[in-house]
Specification:
single chain; Jelly Rolls; 2 domains
């Protein structure tokens, strides 16, 4: 399957119910009403608790701003840190360190899927292509989010250009074809995510 590109500016902002910020959904799979995988960019404008998401595993990374103090015991998350992982039902308190932040969020329904979010530390890197479960997957989702922009290349010679603040992703039903990513600007934030969705009862880490 070809890569799909989603731009941050094309995603409509959704205000939080508590008024603490806005979220832009870049990926909700398979649909917005009953998603199993959700990737979004949030802009946190003031202190307050995160919303509770029962049965969801979350990954959180700071894209810009001074960072946040999250949870109890407190974890300090700054721009140069890797993503942190926590249970969605914990609904941690969030305190801004010095003004508003922009953050990347990955959410996965743990009863139907496994996955991860990681920062790409090199300007050019080969993306993970292996299937991370022995069960028969419903779908394998993977992608790259780039703050500064870059270029994806697959072994099939497909070239996908990512503008700044955009994501490229694909969904398959088997192990994904190997691909590489090259950042336009080496010192900007780039992330890879990988999710394996299985039929209920078949999930295996």
């Amino acid at each position: 399957m070809s890569w799909q590109v989603v731009r941050f500016d094309d995603a409509a902002p959704q205000a939080w119910r508590n008024g603490g910020g806005v979220t832009r959904e870049l990926l909700v799979w398979p649909n917005a009403e009953d998603w199993l995988v959700r990737l979004s960019v949030a802009e946190i404008e003031r202190d307050g608790p995160f919303s509770a998401f029962a049965g969801v595993d979350r990954w959180f990374a700071v894209l810009s701003g001074a960072g946040v103090l999250l949870g109890n015991p407190v974890q300090t998350v700054r721009r140069d840190d890797g993503p942190i992982n926590f249970a969605g039902e914990s609904a941690p308190d969030c305190h801004l360190i010095n003004g508003a932040t922009r953050d990347l969020n990955l959410m996965i329904r743990r009863d139907r899927a496994t996955g991860w979010l990681r920062v790409l530390h090199s300007a050019e890197v080969v993306l993970t292509g292996r299937l991370e479960t022995s069960a028969s997957p419903t779908a394998v989702l993977r992608g790259v989010f780039s703050v500064g922009g870059g270029e994806l290349r697959s072994l099939a010679s497909e070239v996908v250009v990512l503008p700044p603040m955009s994501m490229a992703w694909q969904a398959t039903t088997s192990a994904a074809v190997q691909a590489s990513f090259r950042a336009v600007t080496p010192d900007t934030r780039n992330f890879e995510f990988h999710c394996v969705v299985s039929n209920s009862g078949e999930q295996e880490a």
